[in-house]
Amino acid sequence: MAQPVVRMRDIVTRFGDKVVHDGISLDVERGEVLAVVGGSGSGKSTLMREMIMLLSPTAGKVEVLGHDVAGISELEALPLRRRIGVMFQHGALFGGQTVLENVGVPLREHTELHDDIVDELAQVKLTLAGLEPRTGALWPNQLSGGMRKRAALARALALDPELLFLDEPSSGLDPLSADALDELILQLRELLGLTVVMITHDMDSLWRAADRVVLLGEGRILGTGSMEELARSNDPDVKRFFSGPRARGAQTGGG
Amino acid sequence: MASDPASVSSNGQDIVCQGDWTALQLDRAARDLRYLRPLPGDVEIDLSGVSRIDSTGAWLIYRAAHKWSKLGAKTRYIGLDDKTRELFELIAGQGIEPGDAPHPPAPGFLENLGRDSAEAARNYMAFLGFIGNATFSSLRILLTPARLRWSQVVVESEEAGFDALPIVGMLAFLMGIVIAYQGAVVLQQYGAGIFIADLVGLAMLRELSPLVTAIIVAGRTGSAYTAQIGTMKVTEEVDALRTMGIAPIELLVLPKIFALVIAMPLLTVFADLMGLLGGMIMANNLLDVSFQNFIDRLASEVTIADYLVGIGKAPVFALIIAAVGCYQGFKVSGSAESVGKHTTISVVESIFLVIVVDAIFSIVFSRMGI
Ligand SMILES: Nc1ncnc2c1ncn2[C@@H]1O[C@H](COP(=O)(O)OP(=O)(O)O)[C@@H](O)[C@H]1O
Ligand SMILES: [Mg+2]
Question: Which residues in B lie closer than 8 A to residue A94 (C-beta atoms)?
């Protein structure tokens, strides 16, 4: 029985009086593509921040790659962080470095590989993420929103992480690029045994890329299962989320 | 699954890779690969001893093979499973040539010099343009004063003025002490202790109070102006204002300029008082000049003109600091780093300009005999 890559138990998160999570338990299994969905402000990004050790929940237990991360020190977290790639919602590229340097940051920091090898690898990751190698010479503020996402994905992939977190990877991408991104994620999962946790609103991605979908709302998990299961569900909350015209369009088109 | 770090060996022709070829385990293998030079002919790259491999490891092997085949070797991978083969295909399929990375063009010395000079000239013109724009907007707004955001002027002048009282007062007080102390040593020798009041009075009122105030304000308020406007530029808030038909200069710049022009003279008055107080206390301590004598001497020797000369400089300094601070804020582009850079420029440039203008004032006033 393989251990879950991320295990969350009874997570409670409060900001002041505001309860964002009210008892969430969730396992991310090795090798799966798990999608987290939910309305804006339902606490998806916050949940992700807890999984990547940027935020401690108010109460509850988080285990990442088999380690309890409650009160973990930065030093202890470092080996875990190296095995995790994160793509932030707005890219979070470093403005003072070119795109190529941005993608090379993790490699330069954690390995002693030669600069030209790092640059080549950065280009490989850029093309993997769907950008022209020439884009590497640009500065982040010269990129469009979609390009910025792809560059951020390339950086998240730099160390071939076991566990990849994507916060709204396809928002801001045109449909073709979004399709290509889904393909890429599936391919990387296949080849590198990647486990992916992605936050998304994109119904097409949910149908095509996600093995399992978790619906957040009202601080709880309202539903979990494959897209087919959720689409068939009779639970009123789940129905409401997945039965809008956009959701149905995606099903007939992509499923 | 702990395994040995990646290693590579060769019998002079065929290559054997072993161990864990993932990004964090590659340092030694990467070094060794650089020195391997198979002869032309068939070269088998044996991967059967590789326990794990990721795209970094695969790329290292691929680029070495690529290099060798350019030297005439015919490389062939053996002993790899389907997934690894697919990984190699994925990586090779990206069409990246080893050895040429795209970097922004790096100009040479002369080009840099030329660029920098042109940039400096453009900058100078742009700054003048900004001043013109701000002046024009100010005049227009003075015709319809209701349009100025007075509530913001009040908030800004509280932050730039009232909140700065402790630090300005403290430093001016210390300045008064220092001058009195230095002066006392000399004056005592001539038994001319009472002249301490002239010294402290003239130095503080005419020169040091406005200067100290300006330097502190440049450091704490000018820099804040740059950082605030700069950050708003990075987050496109300035553009958002523009699209809503709100002139950034009216919302962001004019209230700051007005606030500082009001606050700086007031701060300077306070600095005058504290400086004199410091001098007076030292005079009493070191030279036995009583407070009464000090004040009488001050009243008879330091004229109202001396006082006004000092106070009069303050609004000019305020204009310089606010204009430079805001201008540098608008010059920020793109990144957090740029915010830092322009904040530094803002402080250095405004202090520099304040001192230059102060020197010009001194010359002009002495010519005019004030
Ligand atoms: N640092 C914070 N301080 C206070 N409230 C926060 C903080 N971060 C997030 N929140 C609140 O938590 C809720 C969930 O936010 P988030 O996880 O970003 O939602 P989303 O599901 O849209 O990603 C929101 O209501 C947000 O206002
Ligand atoms: Mg979010």
Answer: 335
